[in-house]
Amino acid sequence: MMHVAILRARSVRGWLIGLLLALAAPVRAEVALPAAVEVGDERLSLIRQDTIRYGGLFRVYSLGVYAPAPQPLPQLLATDASTCIEARYHRDLAREILIEAAHRILQRQHPAPRLQAFSDGLARLHAAYVDIRVGDSYRLCRLPDSGLTLDHNGRRVLFQPDPELARLYLGIWLGAGGILGGDG
């Protein structure tokens, strides 16, 4: 299993604060992600599993990538195939942290005019986030020719009928410069 760091402290002070929070926060043991998920009438297989860490040290969540068949992540992102990612959290996190991390990665990946074109959809998606508790999960799925779904703890909290928004947002994990590095 590969370990990936996503959040980097901007300063020593920020790193120390993050360290203190991480040490004080409860943590969940590694979790087993399902080998497959159902999306509509399609069964998607787990093609990759990682543990996402803060600063390379503290486990934040386990992440599974689901697709109809194994393939390199950049190719998967470029297709219109059904794709899901599922995150199971090891720590409590404020929703603002999720949103800030998403914004930072999207800004690194895309020019401002492209992000501006998706600002309404991104705002609706981020408004659906809630504070995370240890053991919570989010599942984000791209549905062919349909759009994006977001489930929190198995309950649908959002459907966005925009396949390009789904591709953009999945790129946070699957794309070049994303959490998984955009590698295979």
Could you give a quick summary of the protein structure above?
By secondary structure, this protein is of the alpha+beta class. 33% of the residues lie in helices and 32% in strands. The protein is globular.
Explain this structure to me?
With 184 residues, this protein is an alpha+beta fold. It has a single domain, classed as 3-Layer(bba) Sandwich (Chalcone isomerase), CATH 3.50.70.10. It is 33% helix and 32% strand. It is built from 6 helices and 8 strands; from the N terminus they run βαβββαβαααβββα. It has helices spanning 12-24, 73-78, 95-109, 112-117, 119-127, 163-174; strands at 2-7, 36-39, 42-54, 58-67, 83-89, 137-143, 147-152, 155-160. Strands 1, 2, 3, 4, 5, 6, 7 and 8 form an 8-stranded mixed beta sheet that branches. A hairpin with a 3-residue loop joins strand 6 (137-143) and strand 7. The longest helix is centred in the middle third of the chain and has 15 residues, at 95-109. It is globular, with a radius of gyration of 16 Å. It starts with a strand and ends in a 10-residue tail after the last helix. The relative contact order is 0.17. Mean pLDDT is 85; it is low at 1-12 and 15-29.
What is the first-to-last residue Cα distance? 13 Å
Could you say which structural class the secondary elements and strand pairing correspond to? alpha+beta
Biggest sheet: strands, sense, closure?
8 strands, mixed
Label the overall shape. Answer: globular
> Could you say what the CATH topology is called?
Chalcone isomerase
Helical element count?
A: 6
What gyration radius follows from the Cα positions, in whole Å?
A: 16 Å
Low-confidence stretches: 1-12, 15-29
- What fraction of residues sit in β-strands? 25-35%
CATH top-level class: Alpha Beta
Task: Tell me how many strands there are.
Answer: 8
- Total count of domains: 1
Order of helical and strand elements: EHEEEHEHHHEEEH
Determine the mean pLDDT: 85
CATH architecture: 3-Layer(bba) Sandwich
* Relative helix content: 25-40%
